[in-house]
Structures
1.
Amino acid sequence: MSDLERQVSSIMSTPGGRLDPLPEIKPYEAYIYESGKLNAPNPFRRFYIQEQSIAIKNTEGPVDDGLTEEMRAEIQNRNREELERFELDSLKMVGTINNENSQWGIVIDPNGTVHRVKTGNYIGLNIGKITLIEEEKIEIREIVKDNSGRYGERMALMPLVE
């Protein structure tokens, strides 16, 4: 018998260890969304507008939420852009591109994806609108809610990262 065969037979003759039982798996319970129910929430409604409308319904008389008509139109009448999924602090400006009649900013998101932005694009979680792009910074106007529930404008800067 060769050394290999002796080693294999030695290993095979030793008793095996005891295995622990498998953990119990809980069965998956599917959720069925029923849109026909009375007062069922609309899954396609923007959550921040829904919060505002709930606050308006729960008060009597006119509500002064601080929103101007222009701000209200910005919130309600547009599709969200890709960079609105990220905190403004997590985005980095890394450069600019100058064209004949426009200037673009180059921004990197936390996932490492490079984005090209221009004046008028929205960025960050607080409805931030890009108002100015320069070689060393991007200026952003945000619509934020304070502790009293009123909305207001706040300016933010995204400096060029060297």
Note: The two ends are 70 Å apart (CA to CA).
2.
Amino acid sequence: MARKQRKDNRPNRPGGKDGGSTTGSVRRTRLSTAQTVAKARRTERLEELRRLRDSTDPAGTPEKSDRPDFGHRPNVADLQPSSSGRRAGLIGGGIALLLVVGLVVGFLAFGPQRTAPAAGGDPSASAAAPATMIGPQTMLTAAEAKTIDGQNWSVRNDQTPGEQNVPVPACLGAVSKDAPKPAESLIRTLSAGEGGSTTLHLAQAYKTPEQATEGYALLAKALGECQLKGSYISGARVITGLGDQATGIELENLIKDSHRAVTLNRTGRMVNVVDVAATKKTPDLDKTAKAMASVTDLQCTIAVGLCASGVKISDGPPPIGGDQPGFLATGDIPTPTNGKGTWGGLEPGSPENVTTSGCENIDFNLLQADNRAARSYVLTDKPKGMPKKFGVDEITLTMRSKKAASEAVKNVVDNLKSCEDRLPAATVSDLSTVSGTGASGAEISGSAALVNQKVSDSETSRYRVGIVSAGNKLVYTFLYRDGDWDMTKDQWTMLTSRAAERATQIR
């Protein structure tokens, strides 16, 4: 195979440091009319939220299932408000409404003559955020963990992330140091039985939704390129309805019999990661996501985010990750069956630099395509005994159309099936179907096979090959194998499908 080497940051209180307009330590600047209008509108909005949450009159309250932006579980910051509190809220809402009407009229009449808002902070930046957003009541409970696998779970401890000996959810050890720092964070550890099953729940609260969105994106990227030594991303889910954003991946380490389901979501200013680890089999990722729905419903009101509503989970690609989007991330590639080595990718090059098995009977560099590229992956630590040719190659072509891509794949599959007629020294076996779902629901279809080429009476070259299409993308995968320097059939089928998933993540 030829390759080219080619501090405590809790939200500030209104009027405090950096939290409002103040001049000196005592004297305060009077709120402008615009700020007063904004404040009154926030008051009215919050009263509306509380009425919708607390009301017991079905005739006067919209169906909450139709209003996913409102919390439909008790607000943990204000559990079981009294009836007098609700009456006060209704009265306050009416007063606020009258105030808004009066102020709007005044603003329209005199607004242009008013002083511009004083510098020093967006009056809506931290609307009604509680002093503390994260606590034991906002974390995954033992009862919720039980819904994942039926085991009896117990809470072991709650700790502050970053302190010595505090665990970190899988794949998140290398998150960018430039990431926004959460104002609050907590990590809960739960355990179950004698089998060693553990669950980590990381909750983070940010000062603004924008910071939370950025924090979520960086965590998602870390999951999408997971650098957990010995493990690979064996599956992924596209999740909707679980707050504002959500995703999930499955991880396998067959050598250590370690299996994990990791789910990430965001609701408003809060981000959650739940990492369930087990032996013998992979925890149910779908049930893990559904268990998080209960947590999300407790958080969404105080986080000013979407609650869990109509959660839908389907197969799909992991979050975009890796140093070369569109190609496999190193976290996608299983460790060889002997458990040795760490994968690394070379700089992308041309398909002409890739040596195929010969049975494909096609030159990927000559196919009509709008774009073509190839990349090779090797074990960068060069473990002892590794064959010189061992590695993975990937070719990706953007064809002129979906039809052209699928026809080219069919042509290659037919050539594999008839290879022994053309090349008597070759044998093709274990031809299997590859399927999956790429980005935007792109259907993945193709085949994978074993190819042996007898070089001499004493030497035979052995390969795994895969060929699939996904939309207008054509993807070919190639592995030189030798003894236990190999992958299992299921791993290779998964990897071929994953390569297509990654290809569909870019245009």
Note: The chain has a mean pLDDT of 82.
3.
Amino acid sequence: LPRWSCLGQTLDVCLFKFLLLLYNQLSPLRLLKSLSLLPPPLSLSLSLSLSLSLSLPPSLSTLLTDLTPEEKAQGVARAIRKQTAEVQERWERLQDHAGGWQSQVERAFERLQELQSNMNQLDLRLARAEETKAGWQPVGDLLIDSLQEHIEKTTAFKEAMAPLRQDVNVVNELSGELAPLDVQLSSTSSRQLDDLNMHWKLLQVAIEERLKVLQEAHRDFGPSSQLFLSTSVQLPWQRALSQNKVPYYINHQTQTTCWDHPKMTELYQSLADLNNVRFSAYRTAMKIRRLQKALCLDLLDLKVAQSTFEQHKLTQNAQLLTVPDVINCLTSIYDGLEQQHKDLVNVPLCVDMCLNWLLNVYDTGRSGKIRVLSMKIGLLSLSKGHLEEKYKYLFSQVASSGDKCDQRQLGLLLHDAIQIPRQLGEVAAFGGSNIEPSVRSCFQHVTNKVELEPRQFVDWMRLEPQSVVWLPVLHRVAAAETAKHQAKCNICKECPIVGFRYRSLKHFNYDVCQSCFFSGRTAKGHKLNYPMVEYCTPTTSGEDMRDFTKVLKNKFRSKKYFAKHPRLGYLPVQTVLDGDSMEMLSQSPQLSHDDTHSRIEQYTSRYCTLPSHKLCPHLVVVSDSCIFLSLSLCVSARTLQREYEQLKEQHGGQWGPGSVGLWDPEGSSHPRGPDEADLLAEAKLLRQHKGRLEARMHILEEHNKQLESQLHRLRQLLHQHRHIHAYTESSDIQILTQPQ
């Protein structure tokens, strides 16, 4: 400090500031002594400046000049201490405020950084979504077949954009957190945030609008609209829909309508050519084979059909499918077949005809509803695959979770299967529409077990039961179509034999082609009751040797042996009339068909209104089959009666009272004129057809008796349930009226 005197007045300010800084280190006395050592002008100036800077009172400031240096020093020291405490307090408050402000600024900065980062990411995602949206084709330019695919893509895009909603919410929440921090977004950031919210809303609206338009287009023009099926017919035909979406066809040329597709009508007419086949199993199988090829179901693999059912979630067998549901399933099947066989499969035509066939088989009343199980059985029966694999697939459709089925489930399977030949008018040869004897035959084959296993069902089907013998014959017909046998037909001299080959087990080197065998033609010395073996594939040397030994054995057997030991190509089932006496009505009243069916309908409707009780499977099968029989037998009886009357008229017109019979007792014919050969052939066909009609009429009569028996059993069931119900109510009343 003594050196300060040489610095002069230029150091006034610097010294004053330095003294303030050293205030805490120097005592007031030393500070004043230091001031007194300064030159007088500088000491006075510093004292005044110090008093002013420290806001000393004026009296104290005046006293500083009047008091002694020690007093001045003490007064200044007191003032300095007081002001120093205030300054120290203010400084601490300032530090606290500065620290709080710094943390607030840092927090706001972090929020701003996070907000900017999220906005940039959201902007990038929305930009990509906008690019995807810009690539959408107008709905009007899309193919009808691709509408469902675009609906699925739009739905997937909507689900992929769903997380953006959370990102938008996060950005808005971050911007909202800046308001309590007294931070306002810049105009650029605020504009970017508004644009992001606007783009997100517009994107949502665009997705919803496109999805709505696609769904409307799919509803109006997709498979459910059946619009693509309109190309299945050509002028003058037009495809139309009833109120329950069932198609029908309008012929504008004849101004008529019909349920059957024009191609289906032509197909049914062509099946009439097969009526000259003598054996009903082959006749039915050949009709079904022609139908199978027309529907392109011979191209459908069993596994593909099953996977399609699983794809459409057809697991509930009792579920009723509408016509659009059936069309969706058939479209999936034929789309896959078209990819493999483009030249053979016309999707609209195949879908429409297959739908027509399913409705003819399982919905004759055109209610627009088909059971899931019925559609499965129909498609699987006509699909391609190994025969035993088909048996297993059919069994799996009705099997329970334990891969077993009871009598009721087997009855449902056989009932749906028998509808296929029934629709072709061939059900009479397969035991009729009543499936109860077949169910009983199957369970008797497995020693009357309660449930049936797949292996046992396949073993029973290998025996070719009468009710389903047409199915294995169908496979043999398909296998024999391209088979060539190096043999010569002994009747028509065809060589090589194409198709089935029938070798006699009575004569050596006697072969018959399928045309001659089915028409019943024979050569001299060979009769129809002689044993023959069928081949649908070329024979092997082992088979030739086996047949040779059989011929040798049969050479030594008489005609009476073959008459007493007829051989059936199927397992005959016992009808209800030949069954147990407990299932028969002792004296059935002779009711007309209409009375029988009306009473069955009345009793079954009343039975459905009763409380549900668990019945034995055998009775459930009867009640189910009774309903279906009542619907089908009336139509079949009327049709057969009408055909029989027409046949009688034709027969009576050709062979009048004055005509001479041309048939000898042996059944052979001898033409007596140039035109009599044609008449004889036609009369023979008429007699065969008449015999078939009479056989079918006889079976229908048996079915009517079965209906009467089942009607009696339904009456007993109703009486039992009514008695049990009345007894239960009376017991409840007695319990309620008893004194407590």
Note: Residues 433 and 629 are 6 Å apart (CA to CA).
4.
Amino acid sequence: MHTIHIQVKVNRDHVLNVDLPNEIAEGTYEVVIVMNPQPEDDDTPDEVAIEGITEGLKQAFTNQTIPISQMWEGIDVE
């Protein structure tokens, strides 16, 4: 039995194309598909991203920053 973990896209015609690794031999297999929806890679609206970048640049240019060494103060990390 082979367990293969890959990400695929289902097109609007509901067709699923799967590229299998070369080590899978030709033959007949029973295939089980587990559908686990993945978030889109870039689901942040452009306006929100641009607003965050703009605010970060304003803070950097006006020296409203803190040293990276201070960013972890007060955070309990084990």
Note: The chain has one domain: 8-66.
